[in-house]
Amino acid sequence: MAVYRDSRQTYMMIGLGTIFLSLVIIIVMAFVTSKGTYVAPDNIHGEWIEIGTPNQQTEVLQFSDRGVHRDYKLIATKYQFNGRIATVKTGSGLWVYEKVGSKSSPQLRRITPRMPPQRFILKGYQHTLSGSSSGSGTNRRDAVKKHFGD
Predict the structure, then answer these.
(1) Residues 46 and 8 in one domain
(2) For bias kind Basic and acidic residues, which ranges apply (predicted)?
(3) 74 and 1 in one domain?
(4) Which of 63, 114, 118, 139 could share a disulfide with 110, CB 3.0–4.6 Å?
(5) Neighbours of 72 (CB within 10 A)
(6) Does one domain contain both 86 and 23?
(7) What's the domain range around 8?
(8) CA 126/CA 140 separation, integer angstroms
(9) For residue range 27-73, what is the model confidence (pLDDT) as tens digits?
């Protein structure tokens, strides 16, 4: 009788341990998956259009699995992106972009080189920019104003 009770308790402990371990694994997998989605390179994938420049001088950056294109010409086959900062090494130097803006108006700001200042918006979100398209200074001021609040 005592042997039966001990084996029953053992099976119950093994069952509870298995359930607990399964829950821990599910929670860890959910965390890793959500963290991976946040810093995944496709959070920056797409065409980024320069803000505040005349149409004939607007630069277009494209991040993809195949690398980085500037004005539809390949400039780098690799880049690093940590969820906020994109680093691109080219033959002409290091280019660093910071993801700014919001989910409703995703934007990139060039950090390096600092001059001339550049901002980009993800293609398809141009309608979220305020201001006229008459002058480059006006558009850049409007973009900075929107980013930092009124």
Answers:
(1) no
(2) 139-150
(3) no
(4) 118
(5) 8
(6) no
(7) 1-38
(8) 13
(9) 888 877 665 544 455 678 889 999 888 888 889 999 998 999 999 99
46 in the same domain as 32: no
The total number of structural domains in the chain stands at 2
Q: Which residues pair with 89 in a beta bridge?
A: 94
Residues 6+ apart with CB under 8 A from 13: none
Find the DSSP H helices in 67-110: none
Whether a cis peptide bond, with omega within 30° of 0, leads into 113 is yes
Which residue blocks in 2-116 are alpha helix, DSSP H?
2-38
Length of the chain: 150
**For the residues of 126-148, what is the DSSP string, one character each?**
GGG--S-SS-HHHHHHHHHHHHH
Task: List, in sequence order, the alpha helices (H) in 39-135.
Answer: none
74 and 1, same domain (yes or no): no
Cβ atoms of residues 48 and 58 within 8 Å:
no
Q: What is the DSSP letter of 46?
A: E
